[in-house]
Amino acid sequence: MTDFPVKVTPASAPLGAIKSFLAVQENVLNVLPEMAFRQPMVSGRFAHMGWHMVMEPTALRRVMRDNLANYPKSSVTTNILRPAIGDSILLAEGADWRKQHRAAVPVFTPRNIGRLAPYMVRAAQGAVKRIGTTNTRPVNLHDEMVRATFDVISDVTFSGEQGLDRAVVHKSIEDYMAGAARMSFFDLLALPNWVPRPHRIFGSHVVKHMHHLADQAIDDRQNAEPNTIPDLMDLLIDTSDPETGEKLTDLEVRNNLLTFIVAGHETTALALAWACYLVAHDTRVQDKGRAEIAEVTHGAQPDEEHVADLKYVRMIIDEALRLYPPAAFVSRTAQADDVLAGRTINKGDTVMLPFYALHRNHVLWDRPDDFIPERFEDRDQIERFSYMPFGDGPRICIGMRFALQEAIIILASLLQAYEFTPVQGKDPKPVMVLTLRPEGGVWLNARALS
Ligand code: HEM
Predict the structure, then answer these.
(1) CB-CB contact of 438 with 444 (8 Å)
(2) Is the pLDDT score of 119 beyond 60?
(3) pLDDT (average), residues 400-404
(4) Confidence (pLDDT) at 261
(5) Nearest-angstrom CA–CA distance, 292 and 286
(6) What is the pLDDT of residue 146?
(7) pLDDT above 70 for 77
(8) Residue 329's closest CA among 310, 293, 356?
(9) What is the set of domains in the chain, with CATH numbers?
């Protein structure tokens, strides 16, 4: 029987260039050496380039907040995503990022996010219903969660577009990601774009089609009657930079809308899929979560009004995000010499922020590989830059509140309706390509509770 919770077996020492190259094709997390789980920093060189893995909270604070301008995002993610989502808020830097960020912040106010809860409740109930139709057959919760979170994100971005074929949009995005998102060791080290990438196959026709669909939807919306409750598209079209009054251009609206779809749905699906895997293996946690849900909702459908009181459900999600952070590894390029945790960083060095190793670092966490939601009972006890599933500093995930509200509503709805148990011999394997996925799926038995 596989160990619970499943984890990546780290290499005993940093791999050499060729071995790293091969290992990372299969799973980016294969480059993490055992030392990354026990030490504050691991450094090395690849050809002429220096690289550093940072797992030390004060150094991370410097990279992500105090000396942010020195550490723009490296070309790892930008190379993969730019053809699809352009220089949206996720990829832009400097003044361009600041302008888009100022305009996007009002879109994600608690009031706006709260008003989108009905879409989350509807998607949760859709998932509950679909799982019910499987009778006693095992169900792949990963697929179910991707479907549910895609329902949410397409409802809150293109809610009025009756003519828009969601299946087509979803397929375009999945095809694009499947083709383009194979990260290579070259990307990881941020080698320049002209160095050919073995796995880089940009599906340009797919991207063009996706852009066309989005432009059409935005155009239709600009000419339509306003929605009574503004969705993310309405909010993006209407918002403006509070400092200059400047609105987002049509291209910026399109890029950011596609960014929300790409950055928002799979990540949240992964948080939910891993949370389901974890609770299925731990009856105590599952029962405790269910008892809280009953006490808070009194049998009603979990909704926005319950979110703040579903504290234990939130802890399960926090712990799932610690053990399996969907964005498990991000990377920056130093623009000038600097010092991190007493170590010299040279201009041009790649600075990797492996959240997967940070969240399991023995210096920072007690029993780091165990599933213990209670560790989030007292959040003040958690050192800020030791836990970063959503990043931190000015570039922190703008959709965090949205994602947490959605994850709480969906997980609570599932636990209210079903008791989950694992399917023997079907444990997922944590594999990171662009995000940390449960390879093989999260296959669970779901027993209806009413
Ligand atoms: C559990 C779900 C999610 C996780 C784990 C997650 C994780 C992250 C992380 C780690 C970053 C920072 C990346 C970096 O510093 O390099 C980020 C940024 C971002 N995320 Fe999320 N995210 C999630 C959900 C969402 C949702 C639902 C949306 C939108 C609806 C979203 C939109 C964004 C955007 C636009 C940025 C860029 C922010 C900026 O650079 O100013 N994310 N996310």
Answers:
(1) no
(2) yes
(3) 97
(4) 86
(5) 10
(6) 92
(7) no
(8) 356
(9) 17-448 (1.10.630.10)
Lowest mean pLDDT among 42-51, 168-177, 303-312: 168-177
Residue nearest to atom 17 of ligand 1 (CA): 397
Task: For residue 179, name the pLDDT band (cuts at 50, 70, 90).
Answer: low
What is the Å distance from ligand 1's center to 359 Cα? 17
Over the stretch 135-164, which tens digit does the pLDDT of each residue have? 778 999 999 999 999 889 888 887 656 545
The closest of 252, 331, 332 to 86, measured between CA atoms, is 252
Helix (H, G, I), strand (E, B) or coil at 383: coil
Given a contact cutoff of 8 angstroms between Cβ atoms, the answer to whether 418 and 276 are in contact is no
Which residues have any ligand 1 atom within 6 Å of their CB? Answer: 73, 89-90, 101, 259-260, 263-264, 267-268, 271, 326-327, 330, 389-391, 395, 397-399, 402-403
With contact defined as beta carbons under 8 Å apart, do 142 and 320 qualify?
no
Angle at 117 between CA 448 and CA 141, to 5 degrees: 35
Is 88 strand, coil or helix? coil
Q: Cβ neighbours of residue 193 under 8 Å, at least 6 residues apart?
A: 75, 79
